[in-house]
Amino acid sequence: MDARFRRMRRLPIVAFACAAALAGCRTERDGGTARPVPAPPAAAASARAGASPPAAPASHWRCGEQRVRAEFDNAARRVALSLPGRALALPQAPAASGARYADGRGNEFWTKGEHGTLALAGETARECRREPTPREAAAARGVGFRAGGNEPGWYVEVGHGEAPALRAVLDYGERRLDLPHTAAAADGLAGTAADGTPVRLRIERTPCTDAMNGQRFPARAELRVGDRTYHGCGAFL
């Protein structure tokens, strides 16, 4: 990654307005600048006692023809599986090796490293293989920053270099933009799409939580494409 893009990562990012109800990110704000809001000592102690644990890390698996999202909760000793059209919560069960989760209805998910098996009640067990998360896949392609949001679903990927490329997939994949070059700005990047549409990506280095799945990110992002604005969370890779 070149020095200019590294500087953009380190410098304070100019804050931008965001309504509290925006889907895709939640931050504490005051006067336009993101900052933690201290609680009174008694309230802080109460909050610590009843605070919700961090969202469990998710992994993605290909089991036969099905894609499965798994959230392992080591504290609760269970896994939450998201499959097409259904969801399962399986408690941890004894296993000779690896990690096994099963209920009393014939549903079982077993993993060891990058491999595993999935058995659903009344169906033949499927071989599973872990797939990279979107962030892992982007990093493997050499992407320097990735952000995304919901309603409508969108994501943006930024490359490396003095004038990094920017690729945006918008509106659940219905619209795609590829900018071969962008210019660094004090608060992110700006460029023009092939059809003349102005594109601006603003990045704020403040914690951001995905409102759909609870996943936490180190940055929040605002992508403006023409007169449309998309809000979400992101991370430098």
TrEMBL record:
The ranges of region (Disordered) come to 29-60
Q: Which residues form the signal peptide?
A: 1-23
- Report which residue ranges the record marks as coiled coil: none
UniProt cross-references to Gene3D superfamilies, sorted A to Z: 2.40.128.200
Q: Organism's domain of life?
A: Bacteria
Q: Which residues form the C-type lysozyme inhibitor domain?
A: 61-124
InterPro entries (alphabetical): MliC (IPR018660), MliC_sf (IPR036328)
Q: What keywords are assigned to this protein?
A: Lipoprotein, Membrane, Palmitate, Signal
Give me the stretches of Low complexity compositional bias.
Answer: 42-59
Q: Does the keyword Lipid biosynthesis apply?
A: no
One Pfam family name is: MliC
**Protein name stated in the entry:** Membrane-bound lysozyme inhibitor of c-type lysozyme MliC
Species per Swiss-Prot/TrEMBL record? Vulcaniibacterium tengchongense
